[in-house]
């Protein structure tokens, strides 16, 4: 268990990259946008996806850190499974923290009627009508999903080198090609299907995202189990 | 810690890196692992440290497979010259993480080494010079006090003074806290005073495993008249030979009894000691090594 604590400690020592830098970037984007919008106000309510920057940033950091921290952890003779579990625990903590911060900003955004200019940048349009706890759950799942996706893609590179990533990309492309082809030609009631998805979007989300998270976690664990450092 | 490798083979496709490796490392001894570049030393060490998987054969540390074995891995520290560190980590981050990882970590010793080597702890690792990066690895290896400590050419970029301080500290700390140490190195003469046992690797195979004293005693240079030297070395393992006029200088490796030596000296032959470095060079030399 000491290995898991060490990995958590490594992520803690990386708090600048996990927390400070992404929130500084988000803050800067917010301030620039706020300044610009304050001078170019129109009567319409606006809603953008300004918070996407933090999701993309954390996904990228997860991808980079997994490789770098694994090489270091391996040098310290930390068990591979301890590395995986420590990293996933860090991902959960970072997701919870980031979601809480985002929720705090959303609450302020709502209380100030969109920062005084009816501008909603931290909340997504589709989730604005949801209860706060539901929004928190959605952000938490999306953060976790993206961080694990970064870990998973990095584990493909560690285990199978860049060629593995290429194969994965091709397989993913074929998968979506088959799915899209099937949905166009295969379903007699295609329209009804998409209508149902539209009506039960939240149910689909709550079922699909945890399933993807579990799948990513499983594959990440599987690939890292026999991962080696090639330096 | 006790290490045992049986019939270990490692191949990447058709490229065989290690073949038929059988060796036993006893606990609380200092081993030197020597061999030319590409001989398979690092691969062998990585297999012992469970960072690589053997294609065939078994590895046991304290009678257990080290792969994903916390009881073994927590007692093992592997310092290698190719170690990479997270880009954003400072030296302080590295040392604090090592401290949090190794159960027998000696923080006082670590701080003493940091001060002695004048390590800039606030700098990021990637900003350090090659030598200073090696120093950080050496500090981790020494302060970890891991019962199985492996150094794979840890001194790259370190100057002679820094290297000598490392050897001194290693020996002093080993005396106080005996542990199994494997030191892979090219600078054999520098570390010959540290080593108790030498393992020579050549082309993926173990060429020789000997106590340092046996190696020292076994290797001598015989100098004298050509014919007399030729007669003397008939039953000996010749490592190298040089002839100038009627005088021949031959480096041999084997056992010479006191009586044989006295008799040879009476016939005009002279004997001189050979450095371990020279013995290794000739043993591992591709053309002459097979002699």
UniProtKB/TrEMBL annotation, chain A:
<feature type="transmembrane region" description="Helical">
    <location>
        <begin position="204"/>
        <end position="223"/>
    </location>
</feature>
<feature type="transmembrane region" description="Helical">
    <location>
        <begin position="54"/>
        <end position="76"/>
    </location>
</feature>
<keyword id="KW-0472">Membrane</keyword>
<feature type="transmembrane region" description="Helical">
    <location>
        <begin position="83"/>
        <end position="108"/>
    </location>
</feature>
<feature type="transmembrane region" description="Helical">
    <location>
        <begin position="12"/>
        <end position="34"/>
    </location>
</feature>
<feature type="transmembrane region" description="Helical">
    <location>
        <begin position="165"/>
        <end position="184"/>
    </location>
</feature>
<keyword id="KW-1133">Transmembrane helix</keyword>
<keyword id="KW-0812">Transmembrane</keyword>
<protein>
    <submittedName>
        <fullName>Uncharacterized protein</fullName>
    </submittedName>
</protein>
<feature type="transmembrane region" description="Helical">
    <location>
        <begin position="136"/>
        <end position="158"/>
    </location>
</feature>
Automatic annotation (TrEMBL), chain B:
<dbReference type="GO" id="GO:0005524">
    <property type="term" value="F:ATP binding"/>
</dbReference>
<keyword id="KW-0067">ATP-binding</keyword>
<keyword id="KW-0547">Nucleotide-binding</keyword>
<dbReference type="InterPro" id="IPR003593">
    <property type="entry name" value="AAA+_ATPase"/>
</dbReference>
<keyword id="KW-0813">Transport</keyword>
<feature type="domain" description="ABC transporter">
    <location>
        <begin position="3"/>
        <end position="228"/>
    </location>
</feature>
<dbReference type="GO" id="GO:0016887">
    <property type="term" value="F:ATP hydrolysis activity"/>
</dbReference>
<dbReference type="InterPro" id="IPR003439">
    <property type="entry name" value="ABC_transporter-like_ATP-bd"/>
</dbReference>
<dbReference type="InterPro" id="IPR027417">
    <property type="entry name" value="P-loop_NTPase"/>
</dbReference>
<dbReference type="InterPro" id="IPR051782">
    <property type="entry name" value="ABC_Transporter_VariousFunc"/>
</dbReference>
<dbReference type="Pfam" id="PF00005">
    <property type="entry name" value="ABC_tran"/>
</dbReference>
<protein>
    <submittedName>
        <fullName>ABC transporter</fullName>
    </submittedName>
</protein>
